[in-house]
């Protein structure tokens, strides 16, 4: 017995000693940082003389491209052969959609959703398409739909074969994985800049940016689906003498269909979000209506167009999800007689619509509620700014976020902590988390931001990101824990989270502008709305997947519900919680950048200026590179924290 107690005492003593060493390490690191801050307090912003001056060469390149676009071989043999087929495909989609009478499109949308999701969803989809006709948005609606069709078609033509190739070649997969990881780290807005630089403003660069942005999911999930086909099925095919190509075509790809279609769904949703954002470079469509209306502070018209975008996004999401029939789910197949009858009805609608020249909705259908929305905006901004003379309302909240949170944090990062200390902290933290490679990544990215002349704007953006992430975690983690413990709460939250994740990020600015004036706060709130579903869902996933036996053991030892949560569930779910923080950070960063449109400041505003004005493309490129560097730092460091906090196994 004495030996047992002695062994326990030794282990406890060693644990206490390790904790003391860790505490002393952190105290020492804090002291070093404090001394460095005092020693470098006289250092101003990143030296302007170190600026590499990338903006001017980029502007010169842009001017050269504009001047030589009619007679230089670069256009004749490289850029035009890329842009001309894409423009041709887009025009054919537009011609076909424009040829169809609007009642036919309404009926086709309803029947397609009825076939895949049921009659109620089909009726809602038909009403949603008709809505675009009622509010005089039919032509922009068709433009957006054509952009979507062309972008998704090109993404699938490229992505599915690349995913198949990756599934058959491990070396190719390793290269693709790193490339796709980098692509998914970059905020959507950044994709517009290089294509606008090369191809100018228009629909072709919009489609190219959309295709590249939406490509990763279909590549990944095609690869995953084929690789997870049961080995027994492959061996059975080979036993019957099938070649490798025959096995792939007749066995692996059909069995991987659910995974491939899930990739198609994700590609469609990413393309929808990007097509709307591409209004910044002249994509047209509904996104252009929202962009123009927000610039003019015409929230009513922006709301009309935003709702049309949401209807299209939800319809496409439900249709692509409905293509995947889960095992055991009731079949929604229609009989051949019904299909023939419906096809006949669609053909009759087309004939009648063409005869009545109803390619576009008749003018007497026009109906607008934009004026009422603008009146409501004026009322809310007047009556909800400060309610009842008390320090509550949109005004005090906006002032609190700006004056108490964002401004002090921005000043701390730009003035209170000098740039050498920020770089030094990144180096030390990176070394402690994952070694010299992460430290070098942090130092290299931060130094590149400074050399681009984007240090102050980057710290401004970082301050907004940190405030929005803190709000997401304060809201999302408790709600996620509650949803994990209460199935009813999870069931009630599911449609709300689905709705928020379906809405393109750009559209979330519209309802926020209704309550708040332009500035950083609307961008932060929109970022919270955009990112909090991921926070809630990953928190719910982590807590719900804690081993029930561990929880039963905790309860049997007399632990309360609160003690079990704090001492068992959260520690065991910490890797998922860090993953939630990582996803939250990346989503917030992408949204904060877009919020530059409504005066969010920082890198987003600089990138928006670069896209709006041809003589500022260089500064937009610099801002885009700085955004990518900042995204890489945040992504790599949070991933390293997640790896370090993996719970013990066994």
Annotate the secondary structure layout.
Elements: H1 2-39, H2 55-67, H3 73-99, H4 102-117, H5 119-134, H6 138-168, H7 170-185, H8 192-199, H9 203-227, H10 231-239, H11 244-255, H12 257-277, H13 285-295, H14 299-322, H15 336-355, H16 370-383, H17 394-416, H18 419-434, H19 436-451, H20 455-485, H21 487-502, H22 509-515, H23 520-544, H24 548-556, H25 561-572, H26 574-594, H27 602-612, H28 617-644
Helix pairs in contact: 2-28, 3-6, 3-9, 4-5, 4-14, 4-15, 5-14, 6-7, 6-9, 6-12, 6-13, 7-9, 8-9, 9-11, 9-12, 10-11, 12-14, 13-14, 14-16, 14-22, 17-20, 18-19, 19-28, 20-21, 20-23, 20-26, 20-27, 21-23, 22-23, 23-26, 24-25, 26-28, 27-28
- Structural class call reads mainly alpha
The string of secondary-structure elements, in order, is HHHHHHHHHHHHHHHHHHHHHHHHHHHH
Number of helices: 28
- In terms of per-residue confidence, which ranges show pLDDT below 50 for 5 or more consecutive residues? 326-331
C-alpha Rg (nearest Å):
28 Å
Identify the quaternary structure here.
single chain
Global geometry: globular
């Amino acid at each position: 017995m004495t030996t047992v107690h002695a062994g326990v005492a030794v282990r406890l003593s060693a644990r206490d000693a390790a904790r003391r060493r860790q505490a002393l390490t952190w105290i020492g690191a804090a002291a070093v940082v404090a001394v460095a801050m005092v020693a470098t307090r006289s250092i101003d912003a990143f030296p302007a003389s170190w600026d590499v001056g990338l903006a001017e060469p980029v502007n010169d390149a842009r001017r050269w491209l504009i001047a030589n676009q009619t007679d230089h071989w670069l256009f004749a043999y490289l850029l035009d052969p890329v842009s001309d087929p894409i423009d041709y495909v887009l025009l054919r989609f537009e011609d076909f959609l424009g040829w169809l009478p609007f009642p036919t499109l309404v009926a086709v949308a309803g029947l397609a959703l009825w076939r895949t999701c049921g009659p109620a969803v089909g009726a809602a989809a038909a009403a949603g398409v008709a809505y675009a006709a009622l509010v005089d948005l039919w032509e922009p609606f068709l433009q957006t739909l054509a952009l979507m069709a062309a972008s998704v078609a090109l993404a699938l033509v490229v992505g599915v074969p690349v995913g198949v190739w990756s599934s058959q070649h491990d070396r190719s997969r390793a290269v693709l994985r790193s490339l796709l990881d980098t692509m998914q780290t970059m905020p959507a807005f950044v994709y517009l800049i290089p294509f606008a630089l090369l191809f100018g403003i228009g629909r072709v660069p919009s489609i190219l940016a959309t295709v590249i942005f939406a490509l990763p999911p279909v590549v990944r999930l095609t690869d995953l689906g084929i690789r997870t086909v049961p080995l027994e099925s492959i061996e059975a095919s080979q036993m019957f003498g099938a070649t490798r190509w025959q096995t792939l075509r007749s066995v692996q790809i059909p069995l991987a269909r659910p995974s491939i279609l899930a990739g198609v769904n994700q590609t469609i949703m990413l393309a929808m979000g990007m097509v709307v954002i591409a209004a910044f470079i002249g994509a047209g469509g509904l996104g252009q209506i929202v962009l123009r209306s927000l610039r003019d502070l015409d929230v009513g018209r922006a709301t009309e167009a935003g709702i049309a975008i949401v209807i299209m996004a939800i319809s496409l999401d439900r249709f692509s999800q409905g293509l995947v029939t889960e095992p055991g789910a009731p079949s929604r197949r229609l009989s051949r007689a019904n299909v023939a009858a419906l096809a006949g009805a669609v053909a009759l609608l087309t004939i009648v619509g063409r005869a009545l020249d109803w390619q576009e909705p008749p003018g007497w259908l026009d109906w607008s509620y934009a004026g009422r929305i603008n009146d409501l905006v004026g009322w809310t901004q007047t009556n909800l700014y400060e309610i009842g003379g008390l320090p509550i309302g949109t005004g005090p909240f906006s002032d609190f976020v700006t004056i108490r949170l964002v401004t002090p944090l921005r000043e701390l990062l730009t003035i209170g902590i000098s740039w050498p200390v920020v770089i030094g902290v990144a180096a030390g933290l990176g070394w402690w988390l994952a070694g010299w490679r992460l430290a070098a990544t942090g130092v290299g990215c931060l130094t590149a931001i400074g050399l681009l002349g984007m240090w102050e704007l980057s710290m401004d953006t970082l301050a907004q990101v940190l405030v929005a992430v803190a709000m997401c975690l304060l809201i999302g983690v408790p709600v996620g824990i509650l949803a994990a413990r209460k199935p009813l709460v999870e069931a009630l939250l599911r449609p709300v989270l689905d709705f928020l994740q379906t809405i393109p990020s750009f559209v979330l600015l519209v309802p926020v502008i209704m309550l708040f004036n332009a500035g950083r706060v609307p961008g932060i709130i929109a970022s919270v709305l955009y990112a909090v579903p991921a926070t809630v869902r990953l928190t719910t996933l982590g807590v719900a997947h804690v081993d029930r036996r561990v929880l039963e053991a905790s309860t049997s030892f007399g632990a309360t519900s609160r003690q079990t949560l704090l001492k068992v569930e959260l520690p065991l779910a910490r890797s998922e919680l860090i993953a939630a923080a990582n996803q939250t950070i990346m989503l917030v960063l992408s949204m904060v950048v877009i919020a530059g449109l409504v005066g969010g400041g920082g890198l987003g505003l600089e990138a928006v200026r670069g896209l709006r004005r041809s003589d500022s493309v260089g500064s937009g490129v610099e801002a885009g590179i700085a955004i990518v560097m900042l995204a890489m730092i945040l992504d790599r460091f949070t991933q390293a924290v997640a790896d370090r906090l993996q719970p013990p196994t066994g």
